[in-house]
Design goal:
197 residues; mainly alpha; 6 helices; 85% helix; elongated
Length: 197
């Protein structure tokens, strides 16, 4: 009798252990793959939730840096459009010592080119963080134009004042751009990224 009970228990145990599987092996692999994707999405969402500030900062940094490069690319294009001829005109103006009419013609040409440059720059939209640089550079060009206009009017005192103000603004524009680039480097360092400048 004990052997019979033992046989029944073993039979019941074996039947319960060797039941029909819920899924085929192929179905099981698909379910595992889906669960892995869901788990990785959950982990990614958790990381974003935990570190959302850094993610937002990284997105903001990347967007700002892209805006910086787009602006500088357009700025350089405009710069190149005017400076090659302007540099020649500056040399001609400075080098002309005998013929005042020629010197005045060079001054007129410089004014025309610089006013065109200003007009093109005024159409260029600067990102907020480059707005000061953009404004200072345009102010610098306006002072340059004033210098040549006062020269043509033979008002040397005003011409000299405009030249000094132009030099100051030109230097200030460089300092402003360096300050913007330093801010980018500081932000990159904080995000443990390679410094862009």
């Amino acid at each position: 009798m004990g052997a019979l009970v033992l046989a029944i228990l073993i039979s019941a145990l074996l039947t319960s252990c060797i039941s029909v599987p819920k899924y085929t092996y192929a179905e099981y692999k698909k379910i595992k793959a889906i669960n892995k994707v869901e788990d990785s999405e959950d982990i990614a969402e958790d990381l974003l939730a935990d570190d959302n500030g850094n993610y937002d900062e990284l997105q903001s940094f990347s967007s700002d840096l892209n805006d910086y490069y787009l602006y500088i690319e357009e700025f350089k294009s405009i710069y190149g459009k005017y400076t090659s001829e302007l540099f020649t005109l500056f040399d001609d103006f400075d080098g002309e010592k005998e013929d005042i009419n020629k010197k005045n013609q060079y001054a007129d040409s410089i004014i025309e080119h610089e006013e065109g440059w200003i007009s093109d720059l005024e159409e260029l939209v600067a990102p907020d963080f480059l707005d000061d640089y953009h404004t200072i550079f345009i102010d610098y060009l306006n002072k340059e134009v004033l210098f040549y206009k006062y020269f043509l009017e033979a008002d040397l005192e005003k011409a000299n004042n405009s030249a000094q103000e132009a030099d100051f603004l030109h230097e200030r524009s460089f300092l402003e751009l360096e300050a913007v680039e330093k801010i980018f480097n500081d932000r990159a360092e904080k995000l443990t990224l390679e410094l862009p400048f």
